[in-house]
Amino acid sequence: MRALVKRAPGSAPRLEELPDPAPAPGEALIAVRAAGICGTDLHILDDVYPHAEPLIPGHEFAGEIVGIGAGVEDWQPGDRVVGELHTGACLSCETCRAGNPQICPVKRALGTWTDGAFAELMTIPAWLLHRIPAALSDAAATLIEPTACAWHAMFERTRMDPGDSVLIAGHGPLGLLSGHLATLRGARQVIVVGRSRHGAARLDSARELGFEVLDESTQDVRAVVAQLTDHRGVDLAVETAGSERALATCVHCCRPGGRVAVLGLSGSQTVPLAWDWALQRDLDLAFSFSSNSSSWESVIALADSTGLPFGSLVSHVLELERWADGFEAARSGNAVKVVLTP
User: Fold this and answer.
1) In this structure, how many other beta carbons lie within 10 angstroms of the beta carbon of residue 302?
2) Torsion of CA 163, 165, 167, 173, to 10 degrees
3) Per-residue pLDDT tens for 26-63?
4) In the predicted model, is pLDDT for residue 235 greater than 80?
5) What is the pLDDT of residues 83-112, one digit of tens each?
6) Any alpha helices (H) in the chain, and if so which ranges?
7) What is the pLDDT of residue 334?
8) Which of 43, 51, 86, 130 is catalytic?
9) 63: Cβ–Cβ under 8 A, 6 or more apart, which residues?
């Protein structure tokens, strides 16, 4: 099979011909039909996010089962699937038994510590699989994974009530997906904050989706949010950019008693926080990593019943051979969501 492989620190990935993998007991063999490029994949290429090497990156995938290992039930070749990332989770510790294998201490995440989806074939434990709603294309289905991350943050780690005002700090795919969920769950106001010099195309997409869009490059965001909320502040602020600036925006734009959900990875060990400001306003601050099975089930049910406009966010679909163009588009901000097709 062909696969994109990163061999060593500081080295560029390259397309290689590798032996086809075989499913172990409990695993399924997947023919990858589409795989989205995530910010984490960029961090892996830049060696700023811990990962195994050699490694086939990629974790936002949609595919078709083409083989099953011993002991796999309820799945068969031909099934269209997406999958969670929690390979290696022990399933027996207190964290796993509470339904959160995504933060199991021994988890070895797909596409980070075990080979992932930038390949023609991949294996994955069958217990991580979910069926793709029939109405979703393969490219659109790759967005189920980041949407599950947004769901986990907004509705499980913290809460969003109907009628809330919601601020999304970050205008990448995760931010836009968070805005979608807020709208579908009855937010009365969704404000997306980004920077045009870090992706004008994404700000344009946010406007087309009907969000109130603020450009930090040209606007005083805190002042405008105050005006938009009658100087009350937002009920929920969602940080998706992984930046000190975005976190500060979230904290300072929340109403007293408001809530902040943090999804973005910063790549830094230490990020300053307006401690007294947050404390004196009695803010709830919830960090949220990855997603659990309940968030996947919720997102898939929502996509199946009301539809999620995933297709409008897929701006580029490129063959795997053009991976370098795809990564450059994702890095530049001139794309919304880039999907590779092996």
Assistant:
1) 18
2) 20
3) 999 999 999 999 999 999 999 999 999 999 999 999 99
4) yes
5) 999 999 999 999 999 999 999 999 999 999
6) 39-45, 94-97, 138-141, 144-151, 173-184, 200-208, 221-228, 244-253, 275-280, 293-305, 323-332
7) 83
8) 43
9) 30, 31, 32, 33, 34, 80, 81, 82, 117, 122, 138
Q: Which residue in 40, 114, 142, 229 is the catalytic one?
A: 40
Cβ–Cβ under 8 Å, residues 64 and 30? yes
User: From residue 228, how far is each of 63, 103, 233, 314 by CA, in Å?
Assistant: 43, 37, 8, 30
pTM of the model: 0.96
- The backbone torsions φ and ψ at residue 337, rounded to the nearest 5 degrees and listed phi first, read -130, 130
Identity (one letter) of the amino acid at 328?
E
- Examine the residue annotation and report whether 40 is marked as an active-site residue of this protein: yes
CA trace torsion 203, 238, 272, 216 (10° rounding) = 20
171 is catalytic: no
Question: In degrees rounded to 5, what are phi and psi of residue 316?
Answer: -135, 130
Residue 267 phi/psi, 5° resolution? 75, 10
Distance (Å, whole) CA 132 – CA 312: 18
At residue 157, φ and ψ (nearest 5 deg) are -75, -35
Cα distances (Å, whole numbers) of residue 208 to 84, 96, 170, 212: 30, 40, 16, 10
pLDDT top residue among 68 and 268: 68
For residue 95, the SS3 value is: helix
